[in-house]
Structures are given as C-alpha cells and as structure tokens.
C-alpha cells in the first residue's frame, strides 16, 4: 500500500526549512498537507521551501493547498518556493494554469 | 478492430476510495497495455470525479472503464442528482478547479442525469493507439 501513502518530512537545507513531500496528494490527505504548509510558513516567517520531487500524484486539492500557502507566505512578506517538482506535479500545475504563480527552484544554491 | 473491454469497481463514500480508484485505473490500464503517458491523465480525472462524488454528492461512486476501438471511456456514477459545476470565477480559491482539469484533459465529457442519480463520463481518444 506504500505506493499510495504520503509522507511529510521537515529538514533544513542551506540554512532554510524544507518540507519534503513524498507520495500521493489527494483530498484524503489535503488536510494534513494544509497543516504542514501552515506550520512551514509560520516557522519561516514567509519564505519556505517545499520539495515536490517525490510527489507521484497530486490533484486539484493539493494545488489548492499550495496556492493558499503561497498567499499566506506572501502576506507574511515572503513566498513559497517549490523545489524540483516531479513531472506529474509540474504537469498538473501547468494544466491548472498556476505554474507562473510560483517560484520554482530546480536546486538549492 | 479491437474488441470492447470493460472493468468496474464499486467504491465507498470514504476518502480512501480516491487511492483505491486510482489503483483500479492504473492496474486495469496496465493490464490493457495502455502506455504510461496515457495513464496519468486518466488517473487525475478519475481522482477528481471520485472526489466530487464523495464530497459534493456524499455518495459511494461506481468507477468504470471501457475500451472501445482506440478510445477509452471513463465513467463515475453516483446516486446523487447534484451536478458538478466548473467555477472559473473561483479559480484562485481552487473551488471548481477539479472539473476544470477534467475539461482540460478530456477529449469529450458530459453528464447523464437520471432520477436515480448521475453519471459523469469522460472520453480519451487514441488511448489504444499503436
């Protein structure tokens, strides 16, 4: 069943807090994703990194949480940085028409 | 001329049906030797429609796949007459974004409503090409 699970892991990279998401983001886990993103934004006072390289699937509920967190981060004077989004994740962001609303980093400086 | 293939799963109204529905779609289409690149959009559409059925209609949906010729037909039926609405107005809030994704990925789609509920169907053309 692990293929269908999701895992959230917090770490620091290059002195910045990072939330790494691995697995599948759908409506069933959107609430957990929302909480993790809220905590990340709160902890960083704005600019937080979300590592999406391990996302095998994301639907509109996951996109909605990313947009919401980005708005919250901007309101706090920062922004949500998306780190290395996986191909499926990138495609859903593009099809949703929100790709340009995010700053995407392929690697940390 | 390829023969018609059908597969169906009855899901529950629980959120775990989302993963179960995607697993059913992936396993069925792989068994039908559909190219991986053509499976991904079907997974997304199935997940969005099952989510709509569970959340907005509050019902246990039936998910089915039918291959006919080179086309794939996906159907999600539920016992609610409440129809999904794509709300472009709310795009930034994400409400209605799911159905917008369905519209973007489908070659054709529609809703058949009856007194006992509705079926949202989505056609993917050329799924069984090559």
What would you say about this model in short?
The complex is a heterodimer of chains A (109) and B (130). With 109 residues, chain A is of the alpha/beta class. Helix content of chain A is 37%, strand content 33%.
Q: pLDDT below 50 for ≥5 consecutive residues: which ranges of chain B? A: 88-94
| Overall 3D shape of chain B | globular
How far the N terminus sits from the C terminus of chain A, by CA atoms, comes to 35 Å
- Kindly report how far apart the N and C termini of chain B lie: 13 Å
Helical residue percent of chain A? 25-40%
* Rg on CA atoms of chain B, Å: 14 Å
Could you characterize what this model shows?
- The complex is a heterodimer of chains A (109) and B (130).
- Chain A has 109 residues and is of the alpha/beta class.
- Chain A is built from 3 helices and 5 strands; from the N terminus they run ββαβαβαβ.
- Chain A has helices at 30-44, 60-75, 87-95; strands at residues 6-13, 16-25, 48-58, 80-83, 103-105.
- Chain A has a 5-stranded mixed β-sheet with strand order 1-2-3-4-5.
- In chain A, α1 (30-44) packs parallel to α2.
- Chain A is globular and about 30 Å long.
- The termini of chain A are far apart.
- Chain B is an alpha+beta fold and 130 residues long.
- In chain B, 34% of the residues lie in helices and 28% in strands.
- Chain B has 3 helices and 5 strands; from the N terminus they run βααββαββ.
- Chain B has a 5-stranded antiparallel β-sheet, with helices on one face.
- The model of chain B is unreliable at 88-94 (pLDDT under 50).
- Classes of the chains: A alpha/beta (109), B alpha+beta (130).
- The A-B interface holds A 4, 24, 26-28, 57, 59-61, 63-64, 67-68, 88, 91-92, 95-97 and B 15-16, 18-19, 22-23, 40, 43-44, 47-48, 51, 54-55, 91-95, 97-98, 100-101, 104-105.
What secondary-structure arrangement, pairings included, does this model have?
The complex is a heterodimer of chains A (109) and B (130).
Chain A: E1 6-13, E2 16-25, H1 30-44, E3 48-58, H2 60-75, E4 80-83, H3 87-95, E5 103-105
Parallel strand pairs in A: 2-3, 3-4, 4-5
Antiparallel strand pairs in A: 1-2
Helix pairs in contact in A: 1-2
Chain B: E1 5-10, H1 17-31, H2 36-55, E2 62-68, E3 71-78, H3 97-105, E4 108-114, E5 117-124
Antiparallel strand pairs in B: 1-2, 2-3, 3-5, 4-5
Helix pairs in contact in B: 1-2, 2-3
């Amino acid at each position: 069943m692990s293929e269908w699970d999701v895992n959230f892991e917090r770490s620091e990279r290059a002195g910045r807090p990072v939330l790494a998401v691995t697995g599948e983001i759908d409506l069933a886990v959107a609430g957990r994703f929302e909480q993790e993103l809220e905590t990340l934004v709160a902890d960083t006072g704005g600019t937080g990194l979300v590592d999406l390289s391990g996302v095998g699937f994301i639907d509109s509920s996951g996109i909605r949480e990313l947009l919401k967190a980005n708005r919250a981060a901007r309101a706090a004077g920062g922004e949500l940085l998306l780190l290395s989004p996986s191909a499926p994740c990138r495609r859903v962001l593009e099809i949703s028409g929100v790709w340009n609303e995010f700053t995407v980093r392929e690697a940390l400086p | 001329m390829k023969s018609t293939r059908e597969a169906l799963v009855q899901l529950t109204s629980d959120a775990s049906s989302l993963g179960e529905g995607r697993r059913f779609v992936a396993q069925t289409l792989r068994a039908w030797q559909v190219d991986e690149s053509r499976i991904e959009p079907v997974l997304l559409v199935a997940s969005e429609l099952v989510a709509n059925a569970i959340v907005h209609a509050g019902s246990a949906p039936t998910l089915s796949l039918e291959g006919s010729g080179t086309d794939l037909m996906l159907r999600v039926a539920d016992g609610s007459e409440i129809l999904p609405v794509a709300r472009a107005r709310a795009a930034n809030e994400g409400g209605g974004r799911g159905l917008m994704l369905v519209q973007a990925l489908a070659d054709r789609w529609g809703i058949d409503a009856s007194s006992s509920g509705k079926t949202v169907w989505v056609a993917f053309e050329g799924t069984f090409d090559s």
